[in-house]
Amino acid sequence: MNLYNVANVYGLQVTCQVNPSVLIGTTYSEGEFNSGNSYFANNLFKADGSWLVGASRLQPNAPASGNITAFSLNYLVAGMGDSSVNCAALAVDQNGREITLAVENGMFDGVEPPAQTATSTPVPTNRPTVTPVPPTETPAPPTPTLTPAALSSITGVVAYQNRANYTGITITLSGDNMPGPIQLVTNADGGYRFTDVPVGEYSLQFSALGHLAVTVEAVIVASDGLVVDAGTVTLRAGDIVQDGTIDLQDAALVGANFGNPMPPAPPETDLNGDGVVNISDLVLVGSNFGLTGAVPTP
Known about the structure:
Blueprint (H helix, E strand, L loop, with lengths): L1 E8 L1 E7 L5 E8 L7 E5 L7 E8 L6 E6 L1 E7 L5 E10 L5 E6 L2 E3 L21 E4 L19 E8 L9 E6 L6 E4 L5 E4 L5 E8 L6 E8 L5 E9 L12 H9 L22 H9 L11
Parallel strand pairs: 12-18
Antiparallel strand pairs: 1-6, 2-5, 2-8, 3-7, 4-5, 8-9, 8-10, 9-11, 12-15, 13-14, 13-16, 16-17
């Protein structure tokens, strides 16, 4: 797959469809995306002629830019006849935001089938090419309108790294002047408020499926009647196993579910919440690779 005049491509997903009676997919060949700088998810060639392959850079490797050969899909000739080579490509930046691409597809002109022991790699008359369209920016997390309560409150906003809907994040408030931890779960805007909080020093932990947990210490309630704003926290995506580190174990779980909708894919592998495990999810693991955080409170 050749890319032309691209910028900041951190991950690439390619789906190709051929006539399986003419061409059979075998292996992919590494290019600008390779085992030294990227993680590959390969769904293998299917009996219907479809093939899905994705690759994401891993930190600290830089995004790809310019004119590059990202990687190649290799086919063997299976029989007589011609076959169209119809591919769709999706590129994303380091935050998993889509870079729209225009794809120019090609045609394989049929040849005599090879001998049983021979191998052959067809070359489409027109190689797929892509042209980027600038990505749209993800809007900043909303700031909720807060009304001070009669007793002290602790408020703030917590957001996912690459979603517009922040539903389902757990916030745990702990402190010496409380009988035990108190938990809230966010709605879509990510805003939260703990009310009736006595004077004291507190900690907040933010956790969600597939994301590194974050702990904010030394949240001080100095007197009654205050509204203490703990600010905005953004959770980094990719800690699938919730062990406080984003590593190859997490990438492998996303890779194992690559191309699958939810279900059967587990919800923690769909990091951007679009209902399918794809290159955006793989890139979120790759761009955050090596980051560490808190282990979520049970």
